[in-house]
Amino acid sequence: MAYRVLGRAGPAQPRRARRLLFAFTLSLSCTYLCYSLLCCCDDLGQSRLLSAPRCLRGPGAGGQKLLPKSRPCDPPGPTPSAPGAPSALAAAAAASAPRLPAANHSGSARMGTKRLPQALIVGVKKGGTRAVLEFIRVHPDVRALGTEPHFFDRNYGRGLDWYRSLMPRTLESQITLEKTPSYFVTQEAPRRIFNMSRDTKLIVVVRNPVTRAISDYTQTLSKKPDIPTFEGLSFRNRTLGQVDVSWSAIRIGMYALHLESWLRYFPLAQIHFVSGERLITDPAGELGRVQDFLGIKRFITDKHFYFNKTKGFPCLRKTESSLLPRCLGKSKGRTHVQIDPEVIDQLREFYRPYNIKFYETVGQDFRWE
């Protein structure tokens, strides 16, 4: 009836009828517009559901800046009608939940990544391992752990994640290196390193076993002045020439014996032997061969070294333009204790068969006799 009255309004009420018709039409249009805004997606948001929160697109979509209280739009997902699509309530809850940043185990591209070492200096104690470490870490393609982690002999139970956490960050083009000389004489170390990576490159710094044993004893004596004499520790019966192989200073120098354990897991081509004697007389030559073994360019040359006559071994210039050389610490280059020459001769005879077997195995004559 209301439409008929409006439609048939007489001349006396034309203005009032037009006003009522305009108001009704406007109300109908606003209702339709509000429904469209709630149910459909506009240019700024993706609010297809009544309960879905609105969002503003980020700089990647139109270059607009996000408003302070707006959240960025999520990547397009399945529509509500698709199988497995979340309900409107679930979508709203997910949108309002806090988002945790993704864990970054690899590190930034600029800082590098903490990785398990690709190369290890595994021995030997008092052979020159610290010198090799300090010399090779000058190379821009090598990052080395400064301390000895003793992972494969003392801390293996802590796991590889703990071991990796100790490593310096390296870029893809760099090699991670660590040094623990006691690995060479640890029975379980070869198998454990093999289980970490069968491609690990191994560096062994060897030295005349008699000289090495005296150096080992000298270091121990500086910490424990009350220990027995070198002669007393070296022999079970000197008259009969019975050497005490249970003493670690003597046993470490039996290189051929320890090498057998490593060759069960690693080919000889993966093990590089550095001469402790040549490291003193020709450090650049020895480091050149180490660089070749690691597959990196020969960056470290004779210009990086200066021979310190007081200490009796080379000191390092980090750069060719460096004026002041940097030498190893006071614990390196100690003056050895004086040993009876007859004791030295007896030990040389003891080590001779082990040395010969070692030379034959590695294909090098270190000339210790």
TrEMBL record:
Biased composition (Pro residues): 73-83
An MF annotation (GO) of this entry: [heparan sulfate]-glucosamine 3-sulfotransferase activity
Compartmental location: Golgi apparatus membrane
Residue stretches making up the Sulfotransferase domain: 117-352
Entry keyword Membrane: yes
SUPFAM superfamilies with a match to the protein in the record: P-loop containing nucleoside triphosphate hydrolases
SS bond partners: 315-327
Active site: 126
Annotated 3'-phosphoadenylyl sulfate binding sites: 126-130, 207, 215, 332-336
Keyword line: Disulfide bond, Glycoprotein, Golgi apparatus, Membrane, Signal-anchor, Transferase, Transmembrane, Transmembrane helix
GO BP, one annotated term: glycosaminoglycan biosynthetic process
Pfam families with a match to the protein in the record: Sulfotransfer_1
Membrane topology (UniProt): Single-pass type II membrane protein
Organism superkingdom: Eukaryota
PROSITE patterns noted in UniProt: PROKAR_LIPOPROTEIN
Entries under InterPro entries matching the protein: NST/OST, P-loop_NTPase, Sulfotransferase_dom
Record-level GO cellular component terms: Golgi membrane
S-adenosyl-L-methionine is among the record's keywords: no
Transmembrane residue ranges: 20-38
EC number in record: 2.8.2.-
Region (Disordered): 61-88
Protein family: Belongs to the sulfotransferase 1 family.
Database matches in PANTHER family: HEPARAN SULFATE GLUCOSAMINE 3-O-SULFOTRANSFERASE 2, HEPARAN SULFATE SULFOTRANSFERASE
Name of the protein: Sulfotransferase
Taxonomic source organism: Neovison vison (American mink)
Gene behind this protein: HS3ST2
